[in-house]
Amino acid sequence: MIKKKVFISSTSFDLKDLRAELAEALKEWGYLPIWNESPVFPKKHGFHSHDICLDAVKECDIYLLIIDRRYGGIYAGENYPKENISITWYETKIAVEEEKEMFIFVRDEVWNERPTYKKNLSVGISIKPHHVDDSKVFNFIEYIVHLSRNNWRDTFKNSVELKGKLKTSLNVPKERKEFAEKPSLRVEDCLIGKLDAWSEDKDFLIKNFILVAQFSELSEHDKCFLFGRRGAGKSAIAIMLEKKEIGYDHCIVIPGEVYTYGNYIALVENLEGSNIDIKMFIRLLWRYVLRIVIMQGVVDYVYKNMVHKKEVIKIIEKYLEDRGFSTGNIGLILLKVFDDLKVEDYKMTPITLYKDLQYRCETVEFKQALSLIQNIMGDKKILIVLDTLESYRIYSDSMNQGLRGIIEEILNILRDRDLSNIGIRFFMPAEIYEDISAEIPAKTKGSTVFLRWQFSYLVAMLSKRFIDMLKRTDSVDKYLIERLDELVNDALKGTAKEKRALRKSFWYDNNFLPSTITNKNKDEEDCFAYILRHTQRRPRELILILNQIIRKAFEKDEFPYLSEKSVRDGLHERETIEILLRDSLSPFEGYINKFTDRARTAFWGMPRVMSGIQLKQFAKALYDVSPIKGITPVDFVNYLLRAGVIGHILDTENCADKSGYCKAWFEYLMQDHIPLNNRFMYYVHPMMGDFFNMKRVQGHGAVYPIPEDDLWLEEEIGIYKRDV
Predict the structure, then answer these.
(1) Which of 129, 221, 242, 724 is the right S-S partner for 251, CB 3.0 to 4.6 Å?
(2) Residue 282, C-beta contacts closer than 8 angstroms, at least 6 positions apart
(3) How many whole angstroms separate alpha carbon 576 and alpha carbon 581?
(4) What string of DSSP letters covers 341-387?
(5) Could you tell me which of 53, 21, 37 has the C-alpha nearest to residue 167?
(6) Residue 236 and residue 504: Cα distance in Å, rounded?
(7) pLDDT category, 487, cuts 50, 70, 90?
(8) CB of 373 within 8 A of CB of 358?
(9) Distance between CA atoms of residues 472 and 464, nearest Å
(10) pLDDT band for position 686 (50/70/90)?
């Protein structure tokens, strides 16, 4: 194997011993050190030594720069433009121009004195530095710090620390004895998190939470609705709202229901009688139940923060206790209302339900309890966060009618002056927005937030969780941990550009992920592009995929470095693809098992690319496997488009361009809907194509879902070019 050449750049006379130690260490690690004291350094007859050094920089693979107290001699060669900078600075400039892989280390004493020197200089005081012979050393460091790339640097105290940090930076594999001293790791210890926020350790979730822009929007007082697809992080945001309380004195988060919403909708549909107004009934039901939740929140706040008002809340406490509502989440309260009605003597009909709910809201005890809230709370405010209703079907009119009723009642509460101390955040599936948006008044639509993750936040989220796992498992050297921790924390505090840079500086440069993947078409893809195009760009999906990749790497004994094969195997694990597909089709809750189990047989091996006519035929065949009452095959294909498992090809004349991709729009990356048109061409999403083992079509590249915005990655790797 050809050894990589490492050019050691520093001032020579004062650092001879250090340079020799580094050269020996590099040899042990399998590198070829290039340093001018070496007997094999390429000395060319008739050339100045400075020119020989600059030529050697061009020939190296890695540039290693060590900065200590000396500035060094000014460039005195003849083959390069004259510049009034030291030869070490000139070597660095050439390395930058040649885009060499660079590692820069500064003596800690020099680095620590730099801010003092700069501060004095800024107020017109010129001091003689103690730890450098020439203040130009600081100018050299400033040049490095302000480079647009390759400006990362680390400090060192002595040669031992320097070699340790360099070894870590070069990702020199640990010897087996280093691992033998540590307790054996289990693969479960090495995963980066769970798929459900509510089953995750809360401290872990809070520590690794990424402050996306939508969280800041929800902090505004008038924002009350959040729409996001399943797995987009709505529950994590709910938990963080409780932690941060965003301008409220108390916050109650009500976890998402699993099947409760579907259960009581079914109870209403099956009542004796006909022509039930589900929207009106659910609005009445939530008028009562939401106020019960508000009462619970007031009691909870008083006991935690206003002990002196315990006596005042006795009336509210008694009301809740008498009806069995002292504890319990909103789903249990909703079902208890039905259980109470079942024990009545009369039959449960729409009319009896309406009357009972109206009666509950009009009783003296209920009104009296509510009237105390503003007096008790004063200027204190409570936030109620209602996490996603997980059980929903976008094709069910009764479910959508019920949601419209809930939204109406939330808006009523927000307009109620007697409840001005109460704020509400209601989280809903993005797929149903269009069906229920008519209930949100135009002036209130500005209160709606849409949760869609940009690439910068996704890569930051994965980096944050991965470094947390590396710390937990002690899987790499402590010097690398320190450097990566600083890198990630700086990016999280920085701009979107700095977060995006983690793709290379964290993942690729440290070999945690390969920079490219060879796909089934034998084309090379950027690793992140390869992973993202198999998902709908949701955090839950990426956590799942990286966990599966880690499992494969663990089996291959390569963890924590994730090879190309581990990426492919982990992503295409049958379980991985099935979970991805099921999450995407979650709006078909209750029908999904039939869909996935039966469609596998019906459509195994079909082409991934279809015309509008073929797509309708595909949908009819799939629909015929198990029809859904009340919708047509055309409705069904529109739901598939809305679920984001089928997309519209952008350019049918160029289905495999220079990038090797066939680019397509999918609804999860758009605000608008994709029309179903006989003349259009459509592409099945990779997760669905892989799950059903559908055929790749000759002349069509791998499908790449193109975002409507946030196109940085696509432009960076040449997949997409904006029209100028």
Answers:
(1) 242
(2) 265, 268, 401, 402, 403, 405, 406
(3) 9
(4) HHTSSS---HHHHHHHHHHHHH-HHHHHHHHHHHHHHTT--EEEEE-
(5) 21
(6) 27
(7) very high
(8) no
(9) 12
(10) very high
Bridge partners, residue 648, by sequence: 665, 682
Q: Rounded to an integer, what is the distance from CA 278 to the centroid of its chain?
A: 37
Distance of alpha carbon 622 from alpha carbon 518, whole angstroms: 32
Q: Rounded CA gap, 384 and 228, in Å? A: 18
> Do 351 and 310 share a structural domain?
yes
Residue 649 and residue 655 in contact, taking contact as beta carbons nearer than 8 Å: yes
DSSP state of 212: -
Q: What is the pLDDT of residue 181?
A: 45
Same-domain status, 284 and 148: no
For residue 510, what are the β-bridge partners? none
* Cis amide leading into 560 (omega within 30): yes
If you write DSSP's letter for every residue of 145-211 in order, what string do you get?
Answer: HT-SSS---EEESSHHHHHHHHHHHTTPPPPHHHHHTSPPPPGGGG----S-GGGS-HHHHHHT---
pLDDT in tens, 558-610: 899 999 999 999 999 989 998 998 888 877 665 555 666 666 666 777 889 98
* Residue 115, in any domain of the structure: yes
Please give the structure tokens belonging to residue 323. Answer: 């009806």
Asked whether the CA dihedral 389, 391, 393, 396 is positive or negative, the reply is negative
Last residue of a domain, one of 450, 465, 489: 450
The answer to whether residues 438 and 481 belong to one domain is no
Q: Are residues 430 and 483 in the same domain?
A: no
Tens-digit pLDDT profile for residues 231-267: 899 989 988 988 876 778 888 888 765 445 666 676 6
Two tokens at 55? 């030529």
Residue in the block written with tokens 């050697």: 56
Looking at the fold, whether 439 and 459 belong to one and the same domain comes out as no
Give the C-alpha separation, 680 to 599, whole Å.
24
Tokens describing residue 583: 């999450």
Residue 584 and residue 565 in contact, taking contact as beta carbons nearer than 8 Å:
no
Closest CA to 715 of 509, 461, 518, 497: 497
- Residue in 285, 394, 396 with CA at minimum distance from that of residue 335: 285
Domain count, the chain: 4
pLDDT tens sequence across 502-559: 999 999 988 899 999 988 888 889 999 999 999 999 999 999 999 999 999 999 888 9
Same-domain pairing of 438 and 479: no
CA-closest candidate to residue 405, choices 342, 468, 372, 357: 357
Q: Report pLDDT for 428.
A: 85
Q: Give yes or no: residues 333 and 358 share one domain.
A: yes
Give CA 186 to chain center in angstroms: 25
Q: Which domain holds residue 411?
A: 213-450
Helices (H) and strands (E) in the chain, counts: 31, 17
The span from the CA of 608 to the CA of 590, in Å, is 26
For 305, the token pair is 């923060």
CA 559 – CA 557 distance, rounded (Å):
6
Backbone angles phi and psi of 424, in degrees to 5: -135, 140
